[in-house]
Design a protein that fits this description.
about 230 residues, alpha+beta, 4-stranded mixed β-sheet, 4 helices, 10 strands, about 15% helix, disordered N terminus, binds copper (II) ion
Length: about 230
């Protein structure tokens, strides 16, 4: 049994899973992304997708025009307003960016979550380019796809090349709370003999749960080490 992290990494490495969230655009698009004028609005909302012919309701982070996430560039400010349009609190972490800690989007560390119907404003300089992502740090919302691309272009990008952003996510019709509870109880895959020692991945997941699963996993991504210092 693979841990979620291992699955994600293997999916990224082999691309053997079907991308269920993909957008393709030709770079660059001057009208998209954060800017120095009015804030870019990101709406946290529920949306419907289809997986293997069956409908499912998941979360999404989209601009009012339907754009998933943000594309912007080094040198601009990350001026964003997050509107919570779901019926539960949420807070979005800008994975890979280096905001002031109060804008880092970790509930009860950076600040309180955004209540249903509320909003939060973000404003900080973008110093590094990269292919990042944004995701909820509230409960198990990220497991229900409360995530989106976060693309910061820099001078090395070439405007004459097509840019395609593909974001992969694993999905289950089983509610994430149920999956988490099964992992917490030691529900590894039973062995052929029936002795059912816990699989290493399940043991690893339980360890993460004890230590704060989301934060640990978030920090474990390789690009979390870049840039090397935080402001
Ligand atoms: Cu993260």
């Amino acid at each position: 049994m693979l841990s979620r992290r291992a699955f994600l990494l293997s999916a990224l490495a082999t691309s053997t899973v079907t991308p269920i969230l993909a957008r393709a655009q030709t770079a660059p698009q001057a009208s998209s992304g954060a800017n120095d004028g009015a804030p870019t609005v990101l709406r946290l909302e529920r949306r419907s997708i289809e997986v293997n012919g069956k409908p499912a309701t998941v979360f999404g982070i989209r601009q009012p025009d339907g754009t998933f996430g943000i594309r912007t560039q080094v040198g601009k400010r990350f001026r964003v307003r997050v509107e919570n349009r779901i019926d539960e609190p949420s807070l979005i972490h800008w994975h890979g960016l280096t905001p002031p800690w109060q804008q880092d989007g970790v509930p009860r560390v950076s600040g309180p979550p955004i209540p249903p119907g509320g909003s939060a404003d973000y404003d900080f300089p973008l110093r590094f380019g990269g292919t990042y992502w944004m995701h909820s740090h509230q409960g198990l919302q990220e497991q229900l796809m409360m995530s989106a691309p976060l693309i910061i272009r820099d001078a090395r990008d070439r405007a004459d090349q097509q840019e395609v952003v593909v974001m992969l996510a694993d999905f289950s019709f089983k509610p994430p709370e149920q999956i988490f509870e099964e992992l917490r109880k030691g529900g590894g895959m039973p062995s052929m003999s029936g002795a059912a020692p816990p699989a290493p991945a399940a043991a690893e997941m339980r360890e993460w749960a004890r230590a704060g699963a989301q934060w640990r996993r978030c920090r474990a991504w390789p690009w979390a080490a870049w840039p090397p210092s935080r402001t």
